[in-house]
Amino acid sequence: MKTYLVTGGAGFIGSNFIIYMLDKYDDVKIINVDALTYAGNLENLKSVENNPNYSFVQADIRDDKAISEIFAETQIDYVINFAAESHVDRSISNPDIFVKTNVLGTVNLLNNAKKAWSIGDDQYRDGVKYLQVSTDEVYGALGDEGFFMETTPLDPHSPYSASKASSDLFVKAYHDTYKFPINITRCSNNYGPFQFPEKLIPLIMNNTLSHKDLPVYGDGMQIRDWLYVDDHCKAIDMVIRGGVDGEVYNVGGHNERPNIFIVKTIIEYIKENVDSEVGEHMIKYVTDRKGHDRRYGIDPQKIKDALGWYPETCFEVGIKKTLKWYLDNQEWVKNVTSGEYQHYYDKMYAGK
Ligand code: NAD
Ligand code: TYD
Predict the structure, then answer these.
(1) How far is the CA of 214 from the centre of ligand 1 (A)?
(2) Is 189 in the pocket of ligand 2 (CB under 6 A)?
(3) pLDDT per residue over 2-20, tens digit each?
(4) Which domains does the chain have, with CATH numbers?
(5) pLDDT digits (tens, 9 = 90+) for 218-249
(6) 160 is annotated as an active-site residue
(7) 36 vs 39: CA distance, rounded Å
(8) pTM for this prediction
(9) What ranges make up the beta strands (E) of 82-211?
(10) Catalytic pick from 34, 60, 136, 256?
(11) Is 137 among the catalytic positions?
C-alpha cells in the first residue's frame, strides 16, 4: 500500500486524479490536502468521499505546522503537488497570491517532505518521491513552427507562469543540492469535468447556454494544445511509478487548436443539442490579454519513449465528452458560479 499526499485535490485536475487513482487501484491511499480557495470544491469528490482509502484535510500548503503534522501522523510515500493559483488573468490583476501559494507553498512542501523522508545526509527512505505538477507555460510562447521540449529554456511571460517556473526551479534545486527525489511534469491546457468556469472551455459553454456574450481575446488566433484530463492523470501515475529521478516530462497530445475554433465548436454543439437560437453572433472580440502567449505546443516524445505514455482521447472525442458532462451537471455549474466568481466575472469583462 502506497500513501499519496495529493495537494489541491479539490481543484479541477487534482479531483480528476484522485478519482482516476481510486478507480484504478485498491492498494493506494490518498490524503487530499486543499485550502478550498474559490477554485476548490469538495463536491467534485462525492464519488470517493466514503472510500476507506481516501481522506481530506483542509490546510494551506504554506502552513508549516499543518503540513508537518500530516507527515508526522502518516507515513507518506509520494507527494503530488497540484495546489496552485492557476488562472493567468487573475495573476495579471493580483500577482502576489501567486508567489505566496505557488512558490512559498511549494518550498514548504519540499521542506516538510525532505525532513520526513531523510535518513541521513542527502539520503532518503526508499521508494519516496515528490512530483511537481507544472505547465508548458513556463517555456513562454512559440511561433508558427516547433514544439516545447524538456530542453527548451524557461522563458515565462505571465505572473502565473513566472510563479510556476520559480517553483519548478526550487524543486530542481532541492534535487541538485540535496539529492532530493523529484520529478516535474509540464502539461498543456487540460480540459474535462470539474474545470472551474473561468477557463476558456467551461466559460464559453456557460455563457452560450445563458445567452451571454462570448468573450474572445484579441483576434482569437492564439493556439493552445488541448489535453484531456484523464490522459494527464495517466501520465502522472506513470511518472510517479516509472519516472527517472530528477527528470522533467512534458505531457501534451498534439491537439493544437486556435481559440476561435474552440469557441465555434462549443456554439455548434449547443446549437445542435440544446438550443437552436445560439450562434456565432454571440462572439464578442474583447481587449486582448496583456502579454498574451501566441502559441503553446508540446513534443511528448520523451514520455512516450521512456514510459510508453500516449494520449488516448483525441480532441474531437474529448470535447464532446466534456460538453456533455457540463450539460449533465448543470447543478454543479450553478453551485460554483455564484458569489466570488460572479464578482470576478463582472469586474473582468466590464466595459470590454
Ligand atoms: P485549480 O485552480 O482548478 O485548482 C487548484 C486547487 O488548489 C484548488 O482546489 C484550490 O483550493 C487549491 N489551492 C489553492 N491554493 C492553495 C493553498 N495555498 N493550499 C492548499 N490548496 C490550495 O487548478 P487546476 O487547473 O486543477 O491545476 C492544477 C495544477 O496543474 C496547478 O498546479 C496548475 O498550475 C497545473 N496546470 C494546470 C493546467 C490546466 O490546464 N488546468 C495546465 C498545466 C498545469
Ligand atoms: P485559459 O483557459 O485561461 O488558459 P491559459 O491562459 O492557461 O491558456 O485560456 C485559454 C485561451 O483562451 C487563452 O489563449 C486565453 C483565451 N481566452 C479567451 O479568449 N477568452 C476568455 O474568456 C478566456 C477565459 C480565455
Answers:
(1) 24
(2) yes
(3) 999 999 999 999 999 999 9
(4) 2-349 (3.40.50.720)
(5) 999 999 999 999 999 999 999 999 999 999 99
(6) yes
(7) 7
(8) 0.97
(9) 118-120, 123-124, 129-135, 182-187, 190-191
(10) 136
(11) yes
